[in-house]
């Protein structure tokens, strides 16, 4: 029996460094209202949606760095998102930089939350795979300092029953690692939400990488098909503070087929009505884990490299 869900992938155009939170939230609210108008059950915002993607530059001043992070969620600035979600009866996914202050000092995470149709947070994920460098690269055109600014997520990959199915979350660079999708699938996720900030050029050389768009779609389409799940991938797109980022926000079926995709590099809502039951169908047939994954024969606990051939 079909289990339909209508999903909105809310691609976000550049967020200037100078744009206040309130103005960013106003843009997100506009996308949320459009999603409501187009019948969405849930609207998916991108990675670190509330600010410019600050890992692209080096920040020495701690107070300045802290200004990119949220210490609470909802916060006064983000409360309208939760209020409107409740008013419209729409769920949402939101990525943001999270600051946790404890006895051991500050912890910083690249985080995403899931919010239900009553405006209540029911899921949180902290990005595990952090790309880039742990130190400034002075000779690079722009930085990729996630290893410097963030701690690796400590909440694991999880899946939550919501919106008529089982929902999972990962963030950006996670999508390039097959174990991300596999662990989420093994936990039962039928649809995975993921936001990304992906430059279309290497940090150390000028010029567009002709493979940036290809690798984006390759990772997500392989992830969906090999794990029998839907993926909703949502970009921060366009030229932000001098860094040009890919778009291609899209909704991909468990067949690996792209059912909807953005055509711009700006704020743009992409909507699809998806049958969550398609994940179950694939998992009972071609991608049946229980029938076909003989992990006891994978040799996972034997030597990593075999002996020298004669
Ligand atoms: N934000 C983020 O994780 N970006 C990375 C850059 C990696 S460069 C190959 C990404 O996977 O898009």
Ordered list of secondary-structure elements with their pairings:
Elements lengths: L3 E8 L9 H17 L4 E3 L17 H5 L12 H10 L2 E12 L2 E11 L5 E6 L19 H4 L9 E4 L2 E7 L6 H9 L4 E6 L15 H16 L2 E6 L2 E3 L2 E3 L4 E3 L5 E4 L6 E8 L1 H8 L4 H4 L18
Parallel strand pairs: 1-2, 2-3, 7-8, 8-9
Antiparallel strand pairs: 1-14, 3-4, 4-5, 6-7, 9-12, 10-11, 12-13
The chain binds 4-methylsulfanyl-2-ureido-butyric acid.
4-methylsulfanyl-2-ureido-butyric acid binds next to loops.
Q: How would you describe this structure to a colleague?
A:
The chain is α/β, with parallel strands linked by helices and 310 residues long. The protein has one domain (4-297): Nitrilase/N-carbamoyl-D-aminoacid amidohydrolase, CATH 3.60.110. Helix content is 24%, strand content 27%. It is built from eight helices and 14 strands. The chain has helices spanning 21-37, 62-66, 79-88, 146-149, 178-186, 212-227, 277-284, 289-292, and strands spanning 4-11, 42-44, 91-102, 105-115, 121-126, 159-162, 165-171, 191-196, 230-235, 238-240, 243-245, 250-252, 258-261, 268-275. The chain has a six-stranded mixed β-sheet with strand order 5-4-3-2-1-14. It has a six-stranded mixed β-sheet with strand order 6-7-8-9-12-13, covered by helices on one side. A hairpin with a 2-residue loop joins strand 6 and strand 7 (165-171). Helix 5 packs parallel to helix 6. The chain is globular and about 55 Å long. It starts with a strand and ends in an 18-residue tail after the last helix. The site of 4-methylsulfanyl-2-ureido-butyric acid (CDT) has 8 residues, from loops.
């Amino acid at each position: 029996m079909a289990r339909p869900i209508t999903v909105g992938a809310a691609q976000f155009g550049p967020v200037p460094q100078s744009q206040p939170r309130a103005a960013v939230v106003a843009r997100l609210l506009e996308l949320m209202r459009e999603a409501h108008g187009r019948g969405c059950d849930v609207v998916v915002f991108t990675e670190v949606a509330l600010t410019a993607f600050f890992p692209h530059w080096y920040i020495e001043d701690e107070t300045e760095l802290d200004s990119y992070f949220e210490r609470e969620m909802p916060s006064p600035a983000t409360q309208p998102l939760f209020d409107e979600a409740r008013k419209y009866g729409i769920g949402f996914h939101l990525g943001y930089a999270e600051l946790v202050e404890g006895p051991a000092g500050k912890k910083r995470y690249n985080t995403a939350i899931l919010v239900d149709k009553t405006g209540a947070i029911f899921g949180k994920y902290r990005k595990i795979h952090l790309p880039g460098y742990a130190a400034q690269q002075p000779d690079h055109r722009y930085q990729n300092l996630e290893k410097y600014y963030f701690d690796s997520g400590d909440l694991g990959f999880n899946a939550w029953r919501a919106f008529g199915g089982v929902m999972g979350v990962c963030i950006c660079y996670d999508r390039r690692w097959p174990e991300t999708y596999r662990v989420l699938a093994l936990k039962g996720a039928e649809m995975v939400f993921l936001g990304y900030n992906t430059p279309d050029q290497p940090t150390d050389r000028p010029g567009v990488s002709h493979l940036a768009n290809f690798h984006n779609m390759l990772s997500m389409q392989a992830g969906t098909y090999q794990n029998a799940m839907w993926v909703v991938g949502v970009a921060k797109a366009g030229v932000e503070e001098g860094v040009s980022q890919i778009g291609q926000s899209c909704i991909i079926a468990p067949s690996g087929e792209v059912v909807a995709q953005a055509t711009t590099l700006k704020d743009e809502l992409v909507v699809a009505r998806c049958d969550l039951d398609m994940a179950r169908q694939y998992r009972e047939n071609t991608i049946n884990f229980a029938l076909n994954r003989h992990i006891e024969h994978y040799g996972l606990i034997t030597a990593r490299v075999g002996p020298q051939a004669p």
